[in-house]
Amino acid sequence: MVTELNDGTFDFCETLTDAEDALAREMLERASAKWPLRVMHILAEAKGPLRFSRVLERVEGISQKVLTQTLRTLEADGLVTRTLYPQVPPRVEYELTPLGGELLVEVVGLWQWIANRLPDFEAARKPKGQTEN
Amino acid sequence: MVTELNDGTFDFCETLTDAEDALAREMLERASAKWPLRVMHILAEAKGPLRFSRVLERVEGISQKVLTQTLRTLEADGLVTRTLYPQVPPRVEYELTPLGGELLVEVVGLWQWIANRLPDFEAARKPKGQTEN
DNA sequence: TAGTTCAGTTACCATAAGGTATGTATAGAT
DNA sequence: ATCTATACATACCTTATGGTAACTGAACTA
Fold it and tell me: Which residues of chain B have pLDDT under 70?
């Protein structure tokens, strides 16, 4: 799908419809976004179901409103399951689906790749000041 | 860094400071975002420098204000070079850096992974309606 | 003298994202 | 009768993102 040419440039071959392409980009953007990524990460570390409050405690800085929204979106995308136990007070457990786990591994892989290159990124940030007008 | 355990769960081992971790997440989020990704993609396909107007034409739907912002951010992150030729009217060329090209290959790899799994994502989207309150 | 070109900048506006604070339902404990 | 716990929903407000439209500057052209 992506090949490096011998002149150092890259070639991208696409076999998707525009709709599929757009959908894949959207999923990529969602899965890499701050809150979904952190929520999935917490659920992966838990290695099992977590109650709403436990997730809220562990995802530092998130509000319960945004956590609710994030979990609902993840559920709608099939990345997380929501299980309601009709007790009083209610108990709701969230867990990563296998698909969510696989996606997370891929995203974390990219994140680690970036982390390994951080020195390069820092070095590349405006080494001199050549580009002023 | 990421290992799948034999019980099907995953283990994440981190050796970064919080600051490095946050920076890597930020770069991940930026590189996966809609406009930066599309701009980098166009520049990669061009296999060489492109003038501002050419990029503007090829990135469908972007406004020149946002394109300017996007290119400046990519430049500040060392993913794109900006070369000003002091003519009248001015000529400015943008080109992917090697680092930008490498990052793009990684991001596009993830994007292609998602694209290959699109049937799974579609199948996982609310197959029945079990989770109503 | 006025118009064209290029790569922006600036002002203004609409929408989205996200935060805080408060309300809600229900059963059990005090 | 009141309080507590849980998982939200809702109202309200601020900030961020992004779009449109108009303006700029300097040289060349008609």
Answer: 1-15, 126-133
